[in-house]
Write a structure and sequence with these properties.
alpha/beta, UDP-n-acetylglucosamine1-carboxyvinyl-transferase, Chain, about 425 residues, 2 domains, globular, 5-stranded mixed beta sheet, binds shikimate-3-phosphate
Length: about 425
């Protein structure tokens, strides 16, 4: 017998997508202001804080570290403890499903004069941590992990020394962990990025008064640095917008307006790519709020050519690749990308998950160690989808389901709450069926 939790989530076919939506606050930016607010001086106020379960995990870890946090719907108040005011936690800090929480918080814990232990769920317990353990250890933290550099992490923090770090992989989470640790090291810490990744940490650190400089791919931060509290609004999550943009581009006569989306250029590679493929996208009401560009996106249906995504832009649309692969089935020439081996170590092995679910829907797809080729002009059929407990897989294939005749059933669909708890309700509001 199936219980409510494992009853697959049904998504029916739709004719069009029409309407105006506002998205929950950006997950990446929400994590950063929560973490930095906790070590700032004064009270930080965050409006539009993400409803995502991952961001809730960050707040819970911070509460366990003695930070006073109040929440009133999407408004958060954080009473900052200063760089040295966090309290040794009485139990393990549970990062849940959130790689961002574990990696970025590790950067802060590395500089605290106490021991802490970071754990996560089954998916997070399989995700690579060598990428932060090595540089944070070089800075002076003592970190123990499970075999294979996996969580849980036991961190014995203390005084840190600055390093010059060249991450071997493009990762904003790793960059952030080192910059946050750099706040507590005496002197200048630098990170030289192989490819530019999302720069929300740099912007937030600047807003809070850190001595941070960015030039020619090198980011430097001076420590020890005192941060001051801020009052900020978080823009809508562009990575959540991606599902609605893709759906509008798959269903003829669709037109959708997304209000107040974050449009930071380190996150908008998908918009540029869609435009290059011929998508009619328009940006209006563009402004900058607290250093982050924000605006409205209007997307309408239009035929798409397809594309070979260059590896150098992969880090800037890493979270959008699953839904782009689904969209690839509806392009003229198909869609391909390489240089995305990182997708194998996200919340699930996303290359495998996408390929497997596309095949279940009757589509052809070629899987490489670091990418996919999805031929164009394909018809998708109804199927039972396996989400692998991965929010972006569940949402990408909900979009695929709209474009079938039969609809899809998504196993483990409730995982959308990791980034977008209101996803299915929002989709139902704009899906036109009659
Ligand atoms: C994130 C960076 C990306 C992304 C993740 C959020 C962030 O991960 O996939 O969803 O907020 O910095 P990596 O930096 O590990 O690629």
């Amino acid at each position: 017998m199936r219980t409510a939790i494992d009853t697959p989530r049904r998504v029916h076919a739709a004719k069009q997508l029409r309407g105006t939506i506002t998205l929950p606050g950006d997950k990446s930016i929400s994590h950063r202001y929560a973490l930095l607010g906790a070590i700032a001086e004064g009270t930080t106020r965050i409006r539009g804080f993400a409803s995502s379960r991952d961001c809730q995990s960050t707040l819970e870890c911070l509460r366990d570290l003695g930070v006073g946090i109040e929440r009133d719907h999407d408004e958060i108040t954080i009473r900052g403890c200063g760089l040295n005011g966090l309290r040794e936690p009485g139990a393990s800090l549970d990062a849940g499903n959130s790689g961002s929480t574990m990696r970025m918080l590790a950067g802060i814990l590395a500089g605290q004069p106490f021991k802490s232990r970071l754990t996560g769920d089954i998916s997070l317990s399989r995700r690579p941590m060598k990428r932060i353990i090595e540089p944070l250890s070089q800075m002076g933290a003592r970190i123990r992990s499970a075999e294979g550099w996996l969580p849980p992490l036991e961190i014995e923090g203390g005084s840190l020394r600055p390093i010059h770090f060249q991450p071997p992989i493009a990762s904003a989470q790793v960059k952030t962990a080192i910059l946050f640790a750099g706040l507590m090291a005496r002197g200048e810490t630098t990170v030289s990025e192989p490819v530019a990744t999302r720069n929300h940490s740099e912007i937030a650190l600047g807003q809070m008064g850190a001595k941070i400089r960015c030039a020619n791919g090198v980011i430097s931060i001076g420590g020890p640095a005192r941060l001051h509290a801020v009052s900020v609004s978080i823009p809508g999550d562009i990575s959540s917008a991606a599902f609605f943009l893709a759906a509008a581009l798959m269903l003829p006569d669709s037109e959708i307006i997304i209000r107040g989306a974050g449009l930071n250029s380190t996150r908008t590679a998908m918009l540029d790519l869609l435009r290059r493929m011929g998508a009619p996208l328009e940006i209006t009401n563009l402004e900058t709020a607290h250093g982050e560009p924000v605006g409205d996106i209007r997307a309408a249906f239009g035929p798409l050519q397809g594309a070979e995504i260059p590896p150098e832009i992969v880090p800037n649309l890493i979270d959008e690749l699953p839904v782009l692969a689904v969209l690839g089935t509806r392009t003229e020439k198909g869609l391909s990308f390489r240089g995305a081996a990182e997708l194998r170590v996200k919340e699930s092995d996303r290359l495998h998950a996408v390929a497997e679910n596309l095949r279940r829907m009757g589509a052809k797809v070629e899987e490489f160690p670091d990418g996919l080729f999805v031929p164009g002009r394909q018809t998708l059929h109804g199927a039972e989808i396996e989400s692998y407990g991965d929010h972006r897989i569940a949402m990408a294939f909900a979009v695929a389901g709209l474009a079938t005749e039969e609809g899809v059933d998504i196993r483990g669909g409730e995982c959308v709450g990791i980034s977008f708890p209101e996803f299915f309700e929002t989709l139902e509001r704009v899906a036109v069926r009659a």
